[in-house]
Amino acid sequence: MGAVLPMILRLSLALSMLLALLACGTSGDEDSALGQSIATFTRDEAEFVPRFVVLLEEEAPSIQVGFIERDISGSLLLEHQKGDFDYWLSVDGAQIILENGMLHSMRGFGEGLLASDLSEPMTLVRELSSGWSDRFHTYLDGNDFAVTRTYRCRIENEGQQSIDFYGTSRSVVLMRENCRSLDQEFTNLYWLDPRSRTIVLSRQWAGPFVGDISTRIVP
Amino acid sequence: MRLSFVAVFTYCAAAFMADTVGSQTLSTFGTPGLVDMPTAEVMSDGQVALTSNRYGNVTRNTFTFQVLPRVYGSFRYGVFRNFRDATPTAPEDFYDRSFDLHFQIAYEGENRPGLAIGLRDFGGTGLLSSEYLVATKTFGDRFELTGGIGWGRLAQRNSFKNPLSVISPKFENRPSSGGIDDTGQLDFGSWFRGPAAVFGGVEYQATDRLSLQLEYSSDAYDEEVSQGVIEIKTPFNFGLNYTYANGSNLRGFVIGGTEVGIQYSYTFNPKNRRVPGGFDEAPPTIVDRNRAILADWNLENDPGRASDVLEDSLDAEGITLEAFVASGDTATVRISNRRWDRGAQAIGRTARVMAQTLPANIDVFVVTTMTSDVPNSSVTIRRDDLEVLETDYDGAWRSLARVQIDDAPVTGREGEVEGLYPKFSYGLGPYLGFSFFDPDEPLRFQLGAELVLSYAPTPGFSFNSTFRLPVAGNIADATRESDSVLPRVRSDASLYAQQSNLQVNRLTADYTFKPGEDLFGRVSGGYLENMFGGISTELLWYPIDSRVAYGVELNYVKQRDFDMLFGFQDYGVFTGHASMYYDHGNGFLTQVDVGRYLAGDWGATLGIDREFNNGFSIGGYFTLTDVPFDDFGEGSFDKGIRFTVPVSWLTGEPSRGGYSQTIQPVLRDGGARLNIANRLYRSTRDYRAAKLSDGWGRFYR
Fold first, then answer.
1. Centroid of chain to Cα B111
2. What is the per-residue pLDDT across B552-583, written as a single tens digit (0 to 9) for each?
3. How far apart are CA B507 and CA B464, in angstroms?
4. Is there a contact between B432 and A39 if contact means CB atoms under 8 Å apart?
5. Element (H, E) at B13
6. Interior CA angle at B692 toward B689 and B697, to 5°?
7. What CA–CA distance (Å, rounded) separates A121 from A199?
8. CA B95 to chain centre
């Protein structure tokens, strides 16, 4: 009779999860949800949510997004536009919200980035200017509190470059943003069209859970 | 390649959990320490450590919880094999439950050591009973030196006169423990008394993950050696600990120069959901008012159309629309939440659906939450605020400052969605139950099929039933008969398992109602729980903006037949309690119940739970009644530890489900309370102002 407590936990959870697969019903709460655990941990192919299917049928604009540490990427479709904000939806209903191409918030990717204040770095980046700025990120932490973090950032114009953009050469300006707080630091890279000041390509830090993402607009 | 958040999760969750390298070394007692000896260290606030080890004929399984930044507590279940000669009532193996408490007097500073005081096995059989005062100092990055003085078991080697005897001569002698007869009682009279001895040791952190421990132990294992359970040749113990990235530790150790042991421990912090942001599908977008679905509809002429659209859209969000009323610039909905573990998230999504649906002239949304078909709270949200703050970096808290949370008025069935009643629901699935600490088989289980049926013909009135059919398990194999001198209201549990086949676990008619502002009422009749049936009434006063609630419950119940069908035994009792619930607002919930228990005994229960904001909770309780400790039997009084793990905490997927378990060292008849499935405080609390505010971080999630 060794390892009672860990065994209790393991047995309880494993068996409950396994058994929940057999459950069915119309109970008030959508609760036989231990089955969801299995679904989460065993699912390797995402299902298309109806919202995404509608956008697909409407041939909504798309954007390429990659999760760099994971080395995966895919297309998100534009679900909604509101002023400077673009709401991009993934096949399984997660969302990335970009403000003039800069990462503002995420929903459903596990990262708790609820919202950001990007006004200062955005001004510098879009003006292709170097300088200091502050940015603010609000994260949902693991204990369901919204926690705002402040980052001090140095933005540098790295000059004009030529990049390969869907097989053709495109002239862009690279803006580098180095940010740090008391315990975190990250670097964002933005490649902008020098005339429209649109971010055509970027590498941006989302948070401690997801790390860096890349974005590439689709012409 | 399609982009799947599940794939993202698999990678990220592993990486996110990997920040525990260098976590605390845990002793064979499952607490911060060297090998057997404690150190003056604590874990992170809220940290949980599960430890199991084996050496010689000894196994220890320990649950340790850092209750407060300076205080941790432990519950331990130890097995000593071949400890004594077997008798008809006692097997040769000895099973020992023990509780520890550790208080960090001072944290380590640059020029001073950390200092701590602790009690081991302060309420058990006394086999491990000991107390200590210990100091720990780190030198450089890798060395840690510990020295301490111990009493009781920690003074079995090279002991000397108790230095505390300068205070009082009574410290010179340690009264012998009452052993099994007094187990469960606090041994105040023994603490820090009798001879003392010193212990000490060093830990060397060889790499980020590997550490070595060497200690001089003042624990000579006198009892175990005399019983031949273990052999001790030297006072020095040695350990080697390896920490894995997921927070688990594997260690090997040698006790007394002869007994080689192995230990595994897993630590985690309930503060951290596995997935902080969750995998919930993105909420509906808040569209421009002129693009709302019903932008061109005149609600006054066709409110039914609005209700239909809202009903469908909310249903897709796991929310049931119960009623819709539009008046002037205000739209009110009554909803019940089926999916979201935070009420604020359900309200946020409801408001988004309303913004996506209702025409531009609607400026104010009122969301009334329903629990058990009774209105609970009403949240008033200005549509402008919802729109403006959606992308504000401080939108969650700014929106909380702008909403108004009121006790929901009783409005009858105005605006009720057509066809809402009668409501019928069912659930068919498996169940799993446990029984702990039977000396013959410490862990017993029962597995089977469970059918839950509910039928509500009108608001607040419902019939509820639960039926179980055991399929496998060994709970019914228990052969120990109750020796209780009290009415056997709980200690005959094994007879219920043995004599039942198809079980009627619950078959009740319930009426839930709201008799006035901030008041909730409940009347239940029928087969209320596995062992009792009868009438139960309850009234709860829970002011909407208060962290305190008061309740009173009165019941008359009769004991059910062991076959768990429809018959009753002769025993009947009036039982009931006055209760106070206090949410401290800092993560602690205190509940005090005073009244009469099932065995007719009068007394009170104190329960304290550490509730993490994400829903994970760990707590404990004890009950003292007018039943003398001797009459109560083993354990002296009723007590237990309990925990709840939300499904969403584990998976990141939205769910209102959770896994709850109460672990009682001994199940006896004193201090036993009726099990009611739908007590009011737990069912109403999620939507009162305090809980809604605590969870408001998820409003825009």
1. 39
2. 999 999 999 999 999 999 999 999 999 999 99
3. 6
4. no
5. helix B5-16
6. 140
7. 13
8. 24
Chain-chain contact of A142 with B273 (C-beta, under 8 angstroms): yes
- Contact (CB<8Å) A143/B443: no
Note the pLDDT tens digit of each residue in A167-201.
899 999 999 999 999 999 999 999 999 999 999 99
Nearest-angstrom CA–CA distance, B386 and B403: 10
Could you tell me which residues are beta bridge partners of residue B538?
Answer: B522, B553
Contact list in A for residue B273 (CB cut-off 8 A) is 142-144
pLDDT of residue B2: 41
- 3-class DSSP state of A192: strand
Lowest mean pLDDT among B8-17, B72-81, B426-435, B609-618: B8-17
Span B225-245, pLDDT tens digits: 988 888 899 999 999 999 998
| Predicted local distance difference test score (pLDDT) of residue B479 | 79
A66 pLDDT higher than 70? yes
Nearest to A210 by CA among A102, A122, A103, A82: A103
Structure confidence at residue B93 (pLDDT) = 79
Q: What separation in angstroms does the CA of A1 have from each of A27, B26, B83, B443?
A: 38, 21, 15, 8
Q: Name the one residue in this structure whose structure tokens are 């975190």.
A: A184
Give residue B4's pLDDT: 46
Question: Which whole-number Å values give the CA distances from A56 to A75, B287, B373, B454, B507, in the listed order?
Answer: 11, 19, 40, 41, 50
Task: Report CA-CA distances (Å) from B45 to B17, B119, B134, B272.
Answer: 17, 19, 20, 12
> Comparing C-alpha atoms, which of B66, B63, B92 is closest to residue B79?
B92
Put simply, the answer to whether B338 touches A80 (Cβ < 8 Å) is no
Residue B18 has pLDDT above 90, yes or no: no
Tokens for A123, please give them. Answer: 């001004």
Question: Would you say B637 and B630 are in contact if contact means Cβ atoms under 8 Å apart?
Answer: no
- Choose between B222 and A15: higher pLDDT: B222
Q: Cβ contact (<8 Å) for B7 and A44?
A: yes
E strand spans, B142-222 = 143-152, 196-205, 210-216
Band of pLDDT at residue A215, cut at 50, 70 and 90: very high
CA-nearest of B97, B78, B85, B102 to B24 is B102
- With beta carbons under 8 A apart, name residues in chain A contacting B445: 11
Query: To which H or E segment does residue A35 belong?
Result: helix A34-42
Distance from CA of A12 to the nearest CA of B (A): 8
Which residues in chain A touch residue B313, judged by CB atoms under 8 angstroms apart? none
Which amino acid is it at B187?
D
Mean pLDDT of B292-301: 70
Q: Is the pLDDT of residue A59 over 50?
A: yes
Instruction: Supply the pTM of this predicted model.
Output: 0.89
- In chain A, what residues touch B16 (CB-CB under 8 Å)? 208-209
Q: Is the peptide bond preceding residue B422 cis, with omega within 30 degrees of 0?
A: yes
| Sequence-separated (6 or more) residues with CB below 8 Å from residue B460 | B372, B373, B374, B511, B512, B513
170-209 of A, contacting B, C-beta below 8 A:
208-209
| β-pair partners for B147 | B135, B200
pLDDT tens digits, residue range A11-28? 444 454 444 445 566 655
B659 contacts A116? CB cut-off 8 A = no
Q: What is the pLDDT of residue B22?
A: 45
- By the CB < 8 Å criterion, does A148 face chain B? yes
Residues in CB range of A116: below 8 A, 6 or more apart: A99, A103, A104, A105, A135, A136, A137, A138, B393
Identity at B457, one-letter amino acid code: P
Task: Report the DSSP pairing between strands B259-268 and B617-625.
Answer: unpaired
Taking each helix axis from N to C end, the angle separating B343-357 and B303-316, rounded to the nearest 10 degrees, works out to 140
